[in-house]
Design goal:
The structure is a single chain. The chain is mainly β and 75 residues long. The chain is 0% helix and 36% strand. It has no helices and 5 strands. Strands 1, 2, 3, 4 and 5 form a 5-stranded antiparallel beta sheet that branches. 4% of the residues are buried. The mean pLDDT is 83.
């Protein structure tokens, strides 16, 4: 099994937040991937929970992708 680079420029990335104790995640916004394959979006955390991102690859070889969840502890 190998890996293959998939050109993702201008693809939409959606961000979701799942509050601690919640069973569902809420859509929080989106951005697009730049010409160097990077993306970012700023949010203000107001409660504990997990953030994740999803994006579509639009390829017959690859399925849609999901990031790992990133937990935020608000203090």
């Amino acid at each position: 099994m190998g890996s293959k680079f998939v050109h993702m420029t201008k693809r939409r990335v959606d961000f979701y937040f799942q509050a601690k104790g919640s069973k569902t995640a809420k859509y929080m916004g989106n951005t697009v991937i730049d010409s160097k394959g990077r993306f970012s979006k700023k949010f203000t955390a107001v409660k504990d929970g997990s953030w994740s991102a999803t994006w579509e690859t639009f390829s017959s070889t690859y399925v849609n992708a999901n990031s790992l969840k990133d937990y935020v502890d608000v203090r």
